[in-house]
Amino acid sequence: MTHAEVASLSGDTWGVLARPCKRTPPELPRAACDAAVRAVQRVQAGDCGGTQDALDEMKSALQGLKAPPPAPVAFFQHKMQSILAAGCTPKPPVVPPR
Q1: pLDDT class for 89, splitting at 50, 70, 90?
Q2: Residue 14 above 60 pLDDT?
Q3: Going by fewer Cβ within 10 Å, which terminus of the chain is more open, N or C?
Q4: What is the CA radius of gyration of the chain?
Q5: DSSP secondary structure code for residue 98 in this structure
Q6: How sure is the predictor about 90, in pLDDT bands with cuts at 50, 70 and 90?
C-alpha cells in the first residue's frame, strides 16, 4: 500500500468518528477522540509504532465508559489496524556495530 493510499484510507476512516467526537457534548471521551486524531496523523506520517500507541491510548480512554462505545468506534479501530497491517512495515532492529 502506498503512502498516498494510507493517507487517504486513514482520513476516510477518521470520518466515522468525526461526528461523535465533535458533538457538544461529545459522545466519546475527549481523550479517546484526541488519541484517534493522533493515530490518523501518525499513520499518515509513516509512524507505525506511534499509530499503535495512539490506538492503545484510545482503547484505554474508552474502558471507563458505562455503556459500550458506539459502533463507529469498533469500525475505526478495526480499519486502522487493517491500515497498519497493510501499510506499515516494521523497521528492522538496529544492530550496534562490533
Answers
A1: low
A2: yes
A3: C
A4: 15
A5: -
A6: low
